[in-house]
């Protein structure tokens, strides 16, 4: 709006009459051209980015060593034995293993920082 009024003011100063506004069909044609140009530019840039990323993938990908792939012996996959039935116990050993795993994880995350202890309250099956 400001630009249009500025153009009219400039035209009046120069002594020229401002052009009449374009018709509806002309405005729609210009709008369609701008929209298609914007969509075209967007897709062109996306295709360019895709090409650059593919180039990076080809250039910087780890190339497999043919000697390593050929030297692997071809052995058939071994099937595992069926799982054994787990006996129902009080779970004291399982609780101790889980507690040790949690403590080891917390020690690796916190490093040398002092750790607050934690207490296992209860584990009950419902």
Q: Could you provide a short overview of the structure?
A:
With 126 residues, this protein is an all-alpha fold. The chain has helices at 2-14, 24-60, 66-71, 92-110. The mean pLDDT is 75.
Write up this protein:
The model has no long low-confidence stretch (mean pLDDT 75). The longest helix has 37 residues. The chain is elongated. With 126 residues, the protein is mainly α. The protein is built from four helices and no strands. Helix content is 60%, strand content 0%.
Q: Would you count the extended β strands for me?
A: 0
Give the mean pLDDT. 75
Radius of gyration: 36 Å
Low-confidence stretches: none
**Could you state the order of secondary-structure elements as H and E?**
HHHH
What is the terminal separation in angstroms?
A: 71 Å
Strand content: under 5%
Share of helical residues: 55-70%
**Helix count from the secondary structure assignment:** 4
Largest sheet: none
Supply the helix-strand structural class. Answer: mainly alpha
Shape verdict: elongated
Per-chain topology:
Elements: H1 2-14, H2 24-60, H3 66-71, H4 92-110
Task: From the structure above, extract its key features.
126 residues; 60% helix; mainly alpha; single chain
């Amino acid at each position: 709006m400001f630009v249009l009024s500025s153009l009219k003011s400039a035209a009046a100063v120069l002594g020229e009459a401002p052009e009449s506004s374009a018709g509806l069909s002309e405005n729609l044609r210009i709008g369609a051209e701008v929209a298609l140009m914007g969509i075209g530019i967007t897709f062109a840039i996306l295709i360019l980015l895709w090409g650059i990323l593919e180039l990076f993938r080809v250039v910087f990908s780890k190339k497999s060593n043919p000697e390593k792939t050929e030297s692997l012996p071809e052995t058939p996959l071994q099937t595992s034995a069926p799982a054994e039935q787990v006996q129902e116990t009080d779970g004291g050993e399982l609780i101790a293993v889980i507690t040790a795993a949690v403590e080891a994880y917390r020690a690796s995350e916190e490093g040398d920082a002092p750790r607050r202890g934690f207490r296992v309250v209860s584990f009950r099956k419902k």
